[in-house]
Design goal:
Layout lengths: L1 E9 L31 H13 E7 L4 E7 L8 E9 L14
């Protein structure tokens, strides 16, 4: 079975937009890396690239309510990001499990 997905790559460095952390998609520790975040369609990949370029987004507690705040990251440029297609192939080969005998 083959699947087509999309990833965002940084042209100058060749690094990918990394997988989303559990809480926020543009968190502070979300720096470009070797492991790509995969998207189902091009639109989702472009939206993620735009949000990442805007900066670090998170919630701020003002004592009464939670507000969404974005801290700009001017070094992140949308013009340096590209959406590429990634083809995944799922194989139905039998997996062998090595059983370690108990002592």
């Amino acid at each position: 079975m083959r699947m087509k997905r999309y990833a965002v790559i940084h042209g100058p460095s060749g690094k990918y937009l990394p997988p989303k952390p559990s809480q926020a998609g543009t968190a502070t520790k979300m720096e470009l890396g070797a492991e790509p975040r995969l998207f189902r369609n091009v639109r989702n990949a472009v939206c993620a690239a735009r949000w990442w370029c805007k900066g670090v987004t998170g919630y701020v507690d003002d004592g009464f309510d939670f507000d969404l705040m974005t801290t700009p990251k001017p070094e992140r440029k949308l013009s340096e990001l590209f959406v590429i297609s990634v083809h995944l192939m799922v194989s139905k080969n039998k997996w062998r499990r090595k059983v370690i005998p108990e002592e």
